[in-house]
Amino acid sequence: MSGDHSHNEDQIDCGSRVNDSHKHKDKYKHKEHKKDKEREKYKHGNSDYKDFSNKKHKDKEKMKHKDGSTDKFKDKHKEKRKDEKIKSLDGKVKKEKENGFASPHVKSEPEDDLYHSPKFEKSLKRERDDDYDSEFKPKKIKTENDKKAKKRKQENEDIKSKKTKSKKGEVADGKKKAKQEPEEKWKWWEEERYTDGVKWKFLEHKGPVFAPPYEPLPSHVKFYYDGKAMKLSPEAEEVATFFAKMLDHEYTTKDIFRKNFFKDWRKEMTSEEKTKITDLKKCNFTEMSEYFKAQSEARKAMTKEEKQKIKEQNERTLQEYGFCIMDNHKERIANFRIEPPGLFRGRGDHPKMGMLKRRIRPEDIIINCSKDSKYPEPPPGRKWKEVRHDNKVTWLVSWTENIQGSIKYIMLNPSSRIKGEKDWQKYETARRLKKCVDRIRAQYREDWKSKEMRIRQRAVALYFIDKLALRAGNEKEEGETADTVGCCSLRVEHIKLYPESEGQEYVVEFDFLGKDSIRYYNRVPVEKRVFKNLQLFMENKEPDDDLFDRLNTSILNKHLQELMDGLTAKVFRTYNASITLQQQLKELTTADENIPAKILSYNRANRAVAILCNHQRAPPKTFEKSMQNLQTKIDAKKDQLSEAKRELKSAKADAKVHRDEKSRKAVESKRKAVQRIEEQLMKLEVQATDREENKQIALGTSKLNYLDPRISVAWCKKWGIPVEKIYNKTQREKFAWAIDMADEDYEF
DNA sequence: TTAAGAACTTAGCATATGCATC
DNA sequence: GATGCATATGCTAAGTTCTTAA
């Protein structure tokens, strides 16, 4: 791949999540990694992007802060310090020369794109994509007259009665039945869509499944404090079991985890327990821990029949609670079980790790359903917090969790209409970006020269988001979550500038923790103007100051919205991921390869995207072993091949002597055997390459969230690859719309 | 206009499942 | 039929963006 989308795969491999409190963020050292030639291919870029050549302008670096913005958007606690800095900076830059350019706010869409003025758009906000998306066909606004409404109601009734009827006979052979009569798949993508924010007209469901109640430990399983057995109250015991279950995990050795746990645990203790248990170090949970391990072993050792019984019970629960009726259709619910209580396990250095995640009761639950539906029943003697009928949202059930105070939801499965439509729309927005990305790139390049600091910052940030597929980077409340950043929240300490490094000019080294505390490490050459701007942004700042002190995600997204309707920072990630896949597939697939080789090419294209998006995973624990196993298989296959070749040779010799039909046939069959073994060997070798390359890269995230599935479907169709080789069952369900609609000519 | 809250998407890890091999 | 392994699925945290309230 050519272009400017350079991305250093070094970040993979040294990129384990930094979640050890003792590993301070700026202490991590990166190893230098061998540059695998294969991976070298994955330097990302769009060919249409490479002409960002640097005009050798003399940069007029230090611009006056003409905007005089209030900076209210940055953390208050930093504001004062920052203001002081800005003042001093302003004083300094005023002496410098101005270039006199004001960056124009051009908003022009390609002519083939329908375009409305922002004002007009606002009034039509909910319908915007209907009006814009070339292939995301709007169909007429769905307005139901009474007749239609009645019909719909009748249909809903029909579905309900069908459901109860089938349920009677289903209990015993539920699964079989589902397999025997695959219901006709509903092609929602061929139907009209709602507008004006209405998400559904009819919604009926059975509510959530609660976590099973706490079962006290048998009396022989003891907790010891300071060496003495101690019987805990059920409340305190339950929380103690949460800790005991995690005893083998590294978490329980961390100070913050232990401190938070102990604090919350004490809240559950009786006053007597509280007086007695004052030191976590004196607590001995090992018996509890052993008990749970034994239980888990016992579960594994259950007979087939017992396992079958549990499976059937789960299936019944799924059938009862796992589906809802939304409009005229039975739809699968994604997460119908309420999260059970336990200890909060944040990712990375989370200040709240170890806190008690409390049990959710019916009284915490808000139910959302149709007025004219049969409401879910709370457990006997209990009440819901509220039953509401809001059809402008997609959730069925919600509650507020106690760790961050955020709301959790029960929503539909990705295969549902409501999720599928949104997903489709997401890719259509990304395709619209494709049409105007050149214009947007030209604009932000122009903005690098702006005399307004805020515009320069915005333009450089956008360049990073586009070039490196960085996330937007919202501000986070300090002390509430792990210290992670995205583009707009980058701090000075997260980048290093090298005017020259390893034979390249203007290199920026990024080193920060992103979402989920996954490390982002990358060294990229940037354009001189970007480099100079970064120097300017970093001037007179402390390491923990914001790099882009005049920018936040809301400012950035507001600007993007002006450039293209529906454009946000996230769209760049989707766009760049999808376009990269499409380009890589074109580049890597060759007609004469067999199917396994083509699939390797697909995976490599997918991998290129995963590297671009920094989707990492911890190397599987069994990785080395499984590679070894595979190598053993390969060696065995090689032996088998040479044996087969020997046999072929002798058969040929035999045939030369005898010159009869029998020996000719023998040669033929030996030849076929050699061929077959060669194919098998190749398949294994391909598998080994694929696995090795995938050691620390997670392909799933990009496949599921960033790659327009129609690109993959088209590729499958073009090369005669069964789509099952690319998407598993769940993925095929999620992407049913794409599988149905994309033909081999589809272009992202 | 801005901050807070709500809604929804994206994320990696843990566990369950099911298939291949002995 | 048991075992071991790879893959699929479930779970829920952590993001982004949209919406509402002050």
Automatic annotation (TrEMBL):
Q: Where does this protein reside within or beyond the cell?
A: Nucleus
Active-site residues, as the UniProt record annotates them: Y706 (o-(3'-phospho-dna)-tyrosine intermediate)
Composition bias type Basic residues, residue spans? 22-34
The record's listing under PROSITE patterns reads: TOPO_IB_1 (PS00176), TOPO_IB_2 (PS52038)
Keyword Coiled coil on entry: yes
UniProt GO cellular component terms: chromosome; nucleolus
Q: Using the UniProt annotation, give all residue ranges assigned to the region (Disordered).
A: 1-178
Cite the GO molecular-function annotations of the record: DNA binding; DNA topoisomerase type I (single strand cut, ATP-independent) activity
Look up the domain of life of the source: Eukaryota
Query: InterPro entries this protein is in?
Result: DNA_brk_join_enz, DNA_topo_DNA_db_N_dom1, DNA_topo_DNA_db_N_dom2, TopoI, TopoI_C_dom, TopoI_cat_a-hlx-sub_euk, TopoI_cat_a/b-sub_euk, TopoI_cat_euk
**Catalytic activity from the UniProt record:** ATP-independent breakage of single-stranded DNA, followed by passage and rejoining
Which of UniProt's keywords are assigned here?
A: Biological rhythms, Coiled coil, DNA-binding, Isomerase, Nucleus, Topoisomerase
Which chain positions lie within coiled-coil regions?
293-320, 627-694
- Main location group: nucleus
Q: Specify residue ranges for compositional bias: Basic and acidic residues.
A: 1-10, 35-99, 106-147, 154-178
Query: Where does the DNA topoisomerase I eukaryotic-type domain start and stop, copy by copy?
Result: 343-720
Which BP terms does GO give this entry? chromosome segregation; DNA replication; DNA topological change; rhythmic process
> EC number(s) for this protein?
5.6.2.1
Protein family per UniProt: Belongs to the type IB topoisomerase family.
Q: What does this protein do?
A: Releases the supercoiling and torsional tension of DNA introduced during the DNA replication and transcription by transiently cleaving and rejoining one strand of the DNA duplex. Introduces a single-strand break via transesterification at the specific target site 5'-[CT]CCTTp site in duplex DNA. The scissile phosphodiester is attacked by the catalytic tyrosine of the enzyme, resulting in the formation of a DNA-(3'-phosphotyrosyl)-enzyme intermediate and the expulsion of a 5'-OH DNA strand. The free DNA strand then undergoes passage around the unbroken strand thus removing DNA supercoils.
Q: What is this protein called?
A: DNA topoisomerase I
